[in-house]
Amino acid sequence: MRLMSGTGMLRLVALLVVGQIAAAWSAPPRAEPPTMKVIAGAGTAGFADGAGAGARFNKPIRLAPLGADTVLVADIFNHALRLVSLDGRVRTVSGAPDRQGHQDGEAASARFSSPHGVGVAPDGRIAVAEAGGHTLRLLTPDAGAAGGYRVTTLAGVPGEKGNRDGLALQALFNSPHAAVWDNEGRVYAPDIGNASIRRVADGVVVTVAGAEAGTFVYPMDLAVTLDGRLVVADAGANQLRVVDRAGHVTTLRVQGELATPHGVAVGPDGTVYVADMKSHRVLAIDGEGRVSTAAGEAGVAGGDATHLNRPAAVLVHGGWLWIADLDNHRICAVPVPPS
Known about the structure:
Number of helices: 1
Helix content: under 10%
Number of strands: 27
Strand content: 35-45%
Largest sheet: 5 strands, antiparallel
Low-confidence stretches: 1-30
Distance between the termini: 61 Å
Shape: globular
């Protein structure tokens, strides 16, 4: 075997180094997630209104827009609905940790049992998916009521779980986990215990998807697209499903794996955002199914300004991607790139 001369070896090394430098210059820069802002909460469970790190939550799990730069939060173990503004101010709309139960009436005295979902209609009404009470509740703005809202039961029988369509106050649910309104004023809820999607309209509950066994496993959250379809986060199947207006269900193509998708939101440009709970990340999925990280680090739970701990929900609102950081008991946000 002929050995390379010293001069030849030096030339080879030089060529390799030049090639590596050229490749480094030509390779696209690695996209880093935008800087995350901790809005309110400080990693410790509790119940306190206030500002920033002085506020306390106990498992914040769902988000809905309520006014400019403000979101509504379902706070599970405080059995309460909370308002959080972008500058960190937190106040309670209704409920409290010492008032678990079912009581309609004025918001200041109403009782809830583990509210898991919130949705706000254009006219300001708030639908609440009450997992612990197996009902959907409704908050209607009322300036004369203590707390500014009057609370009623929208659908379901308080404390009774089951699977029954029909008249809203006779229908049965099994741990509804989210509530969203479509542009026709109808409320949709993923009914996790029945592995189905339910709709309330004109005082009647119907199952729009999931009546056939095996359609979903654990449908946790849903979002409505601009054309009226539903994107469902099926945490048990590690998939995103799409329900069209006729009730047909398909699987959203994703170039990668999901790990317990617990929350979902759709941005104005069609980007689908996912609270990927088990990987401790929020993911962004474009129209081609390509996945990027919007917040957090894969497989690493933490409570600093870079990491998340089992994120439960996402919401695009006011130029920000809001995040319910469940096990850090806080609300975070990252800027959304302009479309």
